[in-house]
Amino acid sequence: QVQLVESGGGLVQAGGSLRLSCAASGRVFSINAMGWYRQAPGKQRELVAAITSGGSTNYADSVKGRFTISRDNAKNTVYLQMNSLKPEDTAVYYCNAEVVTSIEGALWSWGQGTQVTVSS
User: Fold this and answer.
1) Is 37:111 a contact under the CB 8 Å cutoff?
2) Of the candidates 35, 38, 96, 97, the residue with the CA atom closest to the CA atom of residue 62
3) What is the pLDDT of residues 26-53, one digit of tens each?
4) Mean pLDDT (the chain, rounded)
5) What is the secondary structure of the chain as a DSSP string?
6) How far is C-alpha 74 from the geometric centre of its chain's CA atoms?
7) How many CB atoms lie within 10 A of CB 37?
């Protein structure tokens, strides 16, 4: 069994910054791709940023130049540094990862979500 636990969400004023963290625990052998998604009220969940095991990244156009995804493989953790936040960044942010376990093989897992609210 694998768990992804997010932290770092909260309320911030427009122009401010937040850093999200997501740590994987359980029967983790290794982790392939990791990413962050978000879902605003009444909207579909969308990809915000993703990072491969080798460190290659991709971002949604709406966050390019403002958000940075990174990972610490030794800690099985992925981060999302969010700068210059805008009210339209308000959403529940979810961590997603392809975790390789010692028993089940590769599994896609989701975190429980963390709320990010940006006030104008």
Assistant:
1) no
2) 38
3) 989 999 999 999 999 999 999 999 999 9
4) 96
5) -EEEEEE--EEEETT--EEEEEEEEESEEEEEEEEEEEE-TTS--EEEEEE-TT--EEE-TTTTTTEEEEEEGGGTEEEEEE-S--GGG-EEEEEEEEEEETTTEEEEEE---EEEEEE-
6) 17
7) 21
